[in-house]
Structures are given as C-alpha cells and as structure tokens.
Amino acid sequence: MTIKTSNLGFPRLGRKREWKKTIESYWSNKISEAELNQQLTDLHKENLLLQKNYNLDSIPVGDFSLYDHILDTSLLFNIIPERFQGREVNNDLLFDIARGNKEHVASALIKWFNTNYHYIVPEWDNAEPKLNHNVLLERFNYAQSLNVNAHPVIVGPITFVQLSKGGNQTFEEKVQTLLPLYKEVLQSLVDAGAEYIQIDEPVLVTDASADFENITKQAYDYFAEAGVASKLVIQTYFERANIKFLNTLPVKGFGLDFVHDRGYNLEQLKSGDLDQDKAIYAGIIDGRNVWAADIAAKKDLIETLQNYTSELVVQPSASLLHVPVSLDDETLDETIAEGLSFATEKLDELDALKRVINDNDSDKFDVLKARYERFQNQAFKNLEYDFSQVRDTRQSPFAERKKQQDAQLNLPDLPTTTIGSFPQSTEVRKQRADWKNNRISDEAYKTFLQDEIARWIKIQEDIGLDVLVHGEFERNDMVEFFGEKLQGFLVTKFGWVQSYGSRAVKPPIIYGDVKWTEPLTVKETVYAQNLTDKPVKGMLTGPVTILNWSFERVDLPREDVQDQIALAINEEVLALEAAGIKIVQVDEPALREGLPLRSEYHADYLDKAVHSFKLSTSSVADATQIHTHMCYSQFGQIIHAIYDLDADVISIETSRSHGDLIKDFEDITYDLGIGLGVYDIHSPRIPTEDEITTAIHRALQEIDRSLFWVNPDCGLKTRKEDEVREALTVLVNSVEKLRESKDPATV
Ligand code: GLN
Ligand code: ZN
C-alpha cells in the first residue's frame, strides 16, 4: 500500500524573519497597507513554493496569518471583543485587538498548549457571531492559483470555544452558535475543490476532552448532515487522543501524534480502536524538536501503521510553526549539523520515507540513515556531576530569611521594581550586531553597554524605583544569551521561532552536557551596582525555562539535563552573591508551559521543576534575596508548585489576564513576597494612575501588604524608551500616593 505525505503548518516567519520585518514596518508606518498586503502575499507564496519542493501530496493553507491563526478565526466568525466592536473588520482592527491601542487594552495572550507560541484569546462578551470576509477561502484559492496541492486548515469549533472566554452562553451554546458558520466556511472550501480539510482539535488530547465528547459528537454529526464531514480530518497533536471516541465521529480521518503520545496512540490502534476505513494522518516526524529523525525506525513505524488503515498519510507530529525554517542558511559544525533537522529538512525526511516505501527508491533514505547513525555515535556527553556541594533547600525558613533581608535591604512599604530588561532600542541592537560582525571592538562595545547601563540607572533613580536592574542590554534573549555562554549549547544564526505576534525567539540547541565555565552576568551587574546606593538585582534565567525554551536533547532523561542546567545557574548565583549582589532574580516564565497536557503527569513534572529551581537558588546565604518571575500563563494548576519554589519574592503577570490570576491566590495562603504585574507591557499603551491603584487595591485584598511588591508584568525590552519612562513614572507616583494615604482597608 502506498502512502502519501502532508504537512500541518509551516513557519510564518520566513527564512530571515521577513514576516516580522514586514509587519513591524507597517506598524511603524514605514510601509502602506497595500505594501503590507503585497509583501505578505509574496511571503505566503514563498512558503508554499518552498514546501512544494518536497514532493508533498498536500500543503496546508490557513496556517499563514497576519498575527495569529486563532485571532483570524475570531475575526472570521466576528467574535470581536466588545471594546473593539463597531469597526470595520480589517487589518487594523486585527492588529488593535492583538496589541491594544491608545483607547483599549489588547486581548489576553495565552500559551498554545504546552508550547511557547501564544494565541490571542477570543472574547465572547456581547459578541455577534456572523461570517465575515472569508480569508481562508481566499488563501486557498490563491494556493490553487499557484498550482499548489493545498488543503485548508482551520481550528475546530470545540478547540476554538474551549480556548475562548466570556459571554453568558454555555460551552454547548457557543459551539451551536458557531456550527452554521463553520458549515458555510467548510462548504465554501469543498466547493472550491478542497480534497480534505484539516480541522485542528488539539483540545481532544487534554484531560478536559472527556467533558465535551457529547458536544464534539453533535458538532461533527451536524457537519455530516450538512454533507461536509467526509472531507474533514480531525487533527490532534501534542499527546494521545481517545481513539475509540474519535472513531465514533463521521469524518474522513484523524490526525494523530505518534511522537509525543508516549506510545499510547499506537497501542490503541493495536487494540482495534479505529475502523480500517478511517484515514490516518500519522504525525511521525517530531514537529517540535530539531533533531533528525531515526529514519529507519520511522520506516518501521509506517509499516506497522499500514496494518491499521487503508489510507495512510504521514506528516510531522505538529505544525512546523514550532521549529526554524531551514538549515541551509546556517554554518554549523558538520558533526552537529548532521544530527539536525529544521522545517524543510523534516519535509525532506518525509520525502525520503515516501520514496523508499512507495517506489523502493532508497537513495535519500540511505543518506539520512547514515547521517543519523553517525550522529548517535558522537560523544558529547561524558561529564561527571557533583551534587554534594549544592543545597536544594534554603538554610532557614522564609520568615527568618525575610528578617535578615529586610535589615540588609531596608526597602520602603510597597517596594517598586521592574522585571529586568529595558528597551532593546535600535541602537542597542545595532551595536550588538556591529560587535558580533567585528565592525566594532570589544572595548567599544563594552563602553557602549556601560554607558547604556549608567543612563538607565540614572533614569531609574530619577523615577524613584526602589530595586534597580542593569537592563539586560548585552542580551539578545533571556535563553539564547545563556546558551551562548554555557557549554553544551549550540546557537544558530537564523533558527527563529514565533513566540507571539511579530516576536520570535531563537532557542539554543542543547546537544551535549551542560557546564558553567566562567561568570556570565557578573561584570554588568556589578558595574550597575557600583553606580547606585539602591540595590541592583542580578538577573538570570532559571533551569526549567532554559530547558523549555531550548531544543532539548532526547538521548538523556529530561530531568538530568534540567539538573545539569540548575548546577550551572547555581554557580552564577553564587558568583553574583560573592561579588556583593544582594538580590538575584531567577526567571521561570516557562515553568507553566512545560506542564504536561494530561494531569496524570503533572506531579512528576512539577516535582522535578521545583527541585531544579531550588538546586539553582538554595545555596545562597539567608540574607540574599531570591526573586523569580513568571508570566502569561494560567497559574491556577501550579500555584502550589510556585509556592514550593520558596523564592523570597515572585513577580507574576496579572494585567493581561485582567486579574484572573488573583483568584488563584484565594485558594492558598501565599506568605512569601509577591509582586503582581500592574500593567501590560506588551501594549504600547501607558497605564493611568487609577488603573494601577485599582490593580494594587484588588491584589491587597488577597495578599498581605508587607509581602507585596509593585512592578510591570514583564520585562520592558520590547517597549520604547518614552513609553517605559512614562509608564514607570505613573507606577511610582501611584505607589507614592498609596504610601502616603496608607488606606486602612489595605494596610
Ligand atoms: N528578566 C526578563 C526580562 O525582563 C524576563 C523576561 C520574561 O519573563 N519573559 O526581559
Ligand atoms: Zn515575563
């Protein structure tokens, strides 16, 4: 039986982040809307044609977007946040919902399942669902006009509703409202010649899926009655699905993840849970990591899968949105490069598999197989680790530490601080690029960094903040920076992955054992501290986040790699402490996103995460204050683990989730220091004093004032200098008034 190949989604960014540059040029009025549309169409075309090189039987359309595909779906169905209603549905509306504007705050931004991609949360409050301009159909027609064999991709109604918020209707009512609109869109795509439609329902791999099996069944039965279900492939990824349940849905087939399912999808097939006449769209190439596939094992897997269906399509396990575009532009050590596979290389692996299976043509397969085997035999790991010198619990309990820290730091009521970074201005980025490309000397770059640090120390003092930071000007990114300096990591040139909107990150690749060899951040931090009498916080990224935001090796248990990183960070924490730094912040913004999708695995993940964090932070003296920071996640499920980190102070985002987080604190006595983000740094909008005061008041209803800190909700690197100065001034002014009034209700 022959197989086909397909893809679930391709990186939007472009090989050199052209997508980002185009969109940002439009935001800063450097190009017109017509130019924006033209340039994006060109990029979309490039993405489609690039994929076409790999002999795929079908290429996805609908993955490309101006910002986020969930937001596209909200606009398609007119689920427009109330505050933005009444405007024409166009690009500017889309960008305003995503980013906020002068009058209105942006919609919430939440991590897409357990990835570092963020989607814009649909808001139902007073929404008037109807069908707007059918952009998906337009893009599908466009792909066809390029002679590309395409299939449309759309997020399914169950997932869309589950990820949305607001409105008075029940879950079922929302789904039912959307069904006729979906039907119309699906019908239009079938009429336009779609052979199949990939309808993404990743919520079907979560614990919650059991609760909405009924409504899922109703929805897909409805599509069957409408005559479109035979074209639908329900796509799941990131975990196992309940195949027995899927089998009851009257659709063409199912997309299943055979990489991140811990083996359970195949087991279910072996138990006979799927009828032979359902197509299987098998995710066999890891769509979330950058390692070349064990191509021989993949061939075996395909041959096994062929027993369970009469129609097998092989594809990556998830959208390739989560990996960089291509290795072609990299200049890497060949011994490591051989082991890697980015988006286009993954499509090439599919091609190799199809050729060997369908045509017995093993040329490409043999090459990939040999490369894979050579890489496995490289010895990058043989370090010995000594954990005996490292504590995983602080010397004294928090109450005792706090006394010593208060005495040493002498901070006012409601201390103010920021999360670490200040604007990565054009100048900062230019100097770094000049230095990296040897256009300026080490000395000149160092002087520039020192001047920038000094300038911002002065700005922070003038504004009146209490705990200062050096500003992270020397860092490109909070993980990549550490990846560049720690042994065992590889940093690419163009290995960008979209994080949210136009923002991309370049995850380092952990290919070998991790080791700290020299101080990473001490120079800049100490330089800043010497300029001021106020305490300067050292600023590090924690082991869980470094691991989650890197491409991890898969030849070693995850927790071992995490503990190796923890040891390295511990070395740096101690180096800062030895250099006289009294506060060290170890950021863990990615702790939540790594949480397994199924709750049965949560405790194990959290235990290991807490252990690694504590390994990295517990060896300091009691008087040294450890901060941590987290953002843009739903914290409810992990609030106890956050507490177990035993950080002296945590700063945590709340503003963009519009206060939802504070509710999580109602269930726990949180008696460690805590700063709740009082304004949204992802929006250019300047907060008002009233907003900040209200946010503080609200938080003080749950949190003891003596433990409370005031801060923005994340680092300020993406903002403009003026915005930062203005916003922080508002923040400090609000706090000063609160200090004077000492409102008894909140003391
Ligand atoms: N310290 C980092 C910064 O300020 C934290 C960033 C983050 O939470 N994502 O940029
Ligand atoms: Zn943050």
From TrEMBL:
Pathway: Amino-acid biosynthesis; L-methionine biosynthesis via de novo pathway; L-methionine from L-homocysteine (MetE route): step 1/1. Residues 5-308 form the Cobalamin-independent methionine synthase MetE N-terminal domain. It catalyses: 5-methyltetrahydropteroyltri-L-glutamate + L-homocysteine = tetrahydropteroyltri-L-glutamate + L-methionine. The keyword Metal-binding applies. Signal peptide: none annotated. GO terms for biological process: methionine biosynthetic process; methylation. Its EC number is 2.1.1.14. Zn(2+) 1 binds at H629, C631, H640, D644, E653, C714. Binds 2 Zn(2+) ions per subunit. Binds 1 zinc ion per subunit. It is an enzyme of class 2 (transferase). Keywords: Amino-acid biosynthesis, Metal-binding, Methionine biosynthesis, Methyltransferase, Repeat, Transferase, Zinc. The active site is at H682 (proton donor). Its cofactor is Zn(2+). The keyword Methyltransferase applies. Residues 414-734 form the Cobalamin-independent methionine synthase MetE C-terminal/archaeal domain. Catalyzes the transfer of a methyl group from 5-methyltetrahydrofolate to homocysteine resulting in methionine formation. Belongs to the vitamin-B12 independent methionine synthase family. This is 5-methyltetrahydropteroyltriglutamate--homocysteine methyltransferase.
